[in-house]
Structure formats: C-alpha cells, structure tokens
Amino acid sequence: MKKTYDLNVLKRTSIITPDQLREEFPMTEKATRTVLDSRQEIKAILDGKDQRLLIITGPCSIISHRQAVRYGELLAELQEKVKPTIKLVMRVYFEKPRTNVGFKGLISDPHIDKQTFDIDEGLRKARKILMDLNEMGVACGTEILSQTAAERLSGLIAWACIGARTTESQNHREWASAFSMPVGFKNGTDGNLGTAINALLAASTPQVFIGNDPFGVTSRVFSSGNKYCHIVLRGGKRPNYDPVSISEACEMLANHPSLLQSVIVDCSHKNSGKDYRKQGEVFNHVLIQRIGHTNGIHIKPNKAICGMMLESNIEAGKQAFVYGETRKEDLNPFISITDACIGWDETEEIILTAHRQLK
Ligand SMILES: O=C[C@H](O)[C@H](O)COP(=O)(O)O
Ligand SMILES: C=C(OP(=O)(O)O)C(=O)O
C-alpha cells in the first residue's frame, strides 16, 4: 500500500523532556523567590493595587548567554534606583514568530547557522539563561510561541506574552488559560483589538486541551483559566498608543467587567513604525497619558495604562546579518539581529526620566 502520511517529513529526532531538563537545571531557592515575588508584583500592578509602572524592556531576541546576563546586570542595577515607582521585567525572548521565514530564535537554532537546529542545546541554553537571570533577581518575560518551550521553561517566567501573530490561535489561548504567570495578548498584526479581547475571554475560562505531562507523554490538560490575562497594544495598520486608541481599548474592555481593565503599550513594532529611534517618543507620549500632565498642562490621567514595553539592547540598532551566511562568531552579541533596538544608554535615560516624573 502506498504511504499516505509524512510525505514531507525528512526526519524526526526526539528532544529532551521537561522533567529531564528541569533535572539538569533544578530550581534554586533564590530563583523560586524571584519568580513568585515578581509574579505577585506584576499581578498587583495589573489589579491597580500597586501604583507602580510596569516596564518590560530587553532585546528583540536573545542571541547569547553573555548578552542576556550583561543586560540583566544593567537592569538589576537600574531596578534598585527606580524601585519606588517602576517594576522592571526583562524581555528574554527565545522564540521569534516570523512574518514569513528567518531566524526563529535561540531555541530553534542555538548555533545560528540555519543548519544544525540543535533544539536540545537551545532549550538548555534558554533554561540556563533564565536560571542565571532569576538567580540575579531579574524578573523574566518571554513570548510563548511553542508548547514545547512553555512546558520546559514556564516555571522561570514572571510574565508571558502571546504575540500578534498567535493571539487568534486557539492553542495559545488554551495554554495561557493554564499558565501560572500573567499573560499579555498583543492586538492582531492589522491592529484588530477584537482578536485580543476574544483571546482574553478564552484564556480566562477553564479549558480542556491536549498537552504533555512532565515526561513528555501526550495528555489531556484541565486548566482553571487565567485571571491575569491582559491586552498589549502594539499598533497595526496604524499606531494605537494615542489617547483615542487607548480609550477605545478601555471601552472594549469595559464591556467585559470580568476582564482586567488594564492596558500595556508596546512602544516598538507598529507603534514606532518599526523605527527604533521613535520608541522614546512613543514612551513619553504614553507616560503623559498615564500621569495626566506635562509642563504645567493638565489632562485626565489614564490609570488603565499600567505598563509599557521597549525593545532595547546593550548597543543600539541592528547589525548586518544574513541568516545562514553570517557566522555566529562574527556577530556582536550586544547588537540585535532581528528588530533594531534602542541602546542601553537611551533605555536608562528613558526609565530614569519616567521615575522622576512618576515621583
Ligand atoms: O519582534 C520581532 C519581529 O517584529 C517579528 O518577529 C517579525 O519579524 P519579521 O517581520 O522580520 O519576520
Ligand atoms: C514579535 C513581537 O511582537 P509582535 O507579536 O507584536 O509582532 C515581539 O515582541 O518580539
């Protein structure tokens, strides 16, 4: 009989199970405390019980341990300075959703060579980076693109994001309903907010779906629903960080009183027109809306704005990189190879200025 399945599968290899990976990199007391305390703080901010601003900042993609730990050190130092007004979460993004094709992140291809795709090594690198950051007291945020990464790393994540390309995916909504951390859903790539609101409704509801147990065995998973799902505005056909767009989002949320009435604004992506140099301007615009005044002019503060996101790296911009051609050894680990980012100096200035204004 002719084979009817796997006609386009070239090869399959097994990967490390969640249990094996956790055994190789077991939780420590300090890391557990960082994760649990940070989640509590983020939840309190989303609930409006903690008036501080949440800022999720960090590289578009993590490309090396050195880069992640250096950024983490800088962030930890800054967190101490702005503690009374701002909670910082580092973007520790290992999975990149592509518009069509390209480097899909360190888990998919840790050697960045478009050849080896050593996913076991990628998962090990990711878990080690997350362990080290949590040990340093740095709260980690990441985009969850695959169930595989979620099952192996979620215990080290304080805040998760479902990206614009997957907010409409039923699977991602199901996983979010089971996650232990607060989850932000981006609006759709075209700017559609309804997609994100539907995602919040689905993810806050108990679900039954197919997942894996810690030993990698396919299982039914029964979730309780996640009450800490919220919206992240990232722009679409046009930016959506202006007062009218944010009010529109708040009105849509108000139609569903069971949902968190809080909004995070991503200052990058389509809100900056993908021009990293505009992120600071977007940030200031949103900060004024949140605080309610600028240079003596008073406007009504919008307390629903509880957080902002920045794509920031140690050095600004983006380096020349052709996937499959540029060798990893030739890359500068401190400059982005995916979206261009603001550099550390500008990041620090933006956050310190916000701290002074929030005080
Ligand atoms: O933040 C990252 C990118 O915007 C996202 O992964 C899409 O990238 P691409 O359009 O270059 O594929
Ligand atoms: C891919 C990202 O964002 P978006 O889903 O908004 O495109 C990201 O934040 O890295």
From TrEMBL:
Q: What stretches pass through the bilayer?
A: none
Q: A Pfam family this protein belongs to?
A: DAHP_synth_1
Which reactions does this protein catalyse?
A: D-erythrose 4-phosphate + phosphoenolpyruvate + H2O = 7-phospho-2-dehydro-3-deoxy-D-arabino-heptonate + phosphate
Q: What is its EC number?
A: 2.5.1.54
Which pathway does the protein contribute to? Answer: Metabolic intermediate biosynthesis; chorismate biosynthesis; chorismate from D-erythrose 4-phosphate and phosphoenolpyruvate: step 1/7
Instruction: Report the InterPro entries cross-referenced here.
Output: Aldolase_TIM (IPR013785), DAHP1/KDSA (IPR006218), DAHP_synth_1 (IPR006219)
Tell me the SUPFAM superfamilies matching this sequence.
Aldolase
Gene Ontology biological-process entries: amino acid biosynthetic process; aromatic amino acid family biosynthetic process; chorismate biosynthetic process
A GO CC annotation recorded here is: cytoplasm
Tell me which domain of life the UniProt entry assigns to the organism this sequence originates from. Answer: Bacteria
Q: Which UniProt keywords apply?
A: Amino-acid biosynthesis, Aromatic amino acid biosynthesis, Transferase
Q: Which residues form the DAHP synthetase I/KDSA domain?
A: 40-350
Similarity section: Belongs to the class-I DAHP synthase family.
**PANTHER family given in the database record:** PHOSPHO-2-DEHYDRO-3-DEOXYHEPTONATE ALDOLASE DAHP SYNTHETASE (PTHR21225), PHOSPHO-2-DEHYDRO-3-DEOXYHEPTONATE ALDOLASE, TYROSINE-INHIBITED (PTHR21225:SF12)
What does it do?
Answer: Stereospecific condensation of phosphoenolpyruvate (PEP) and D-erythrose-4-phosphate (E4P) giving rise to 3-deoxy-D-arabino-heptulosonate-7-phosphate (DAHP).
Please identify the protein, giving its name as recorded: Phospho-2-dehydro-3-deoxyheptonate aldolase
Q: Which organism is the protein's source?
A: Desulfosarcina ovata subsp. ovata
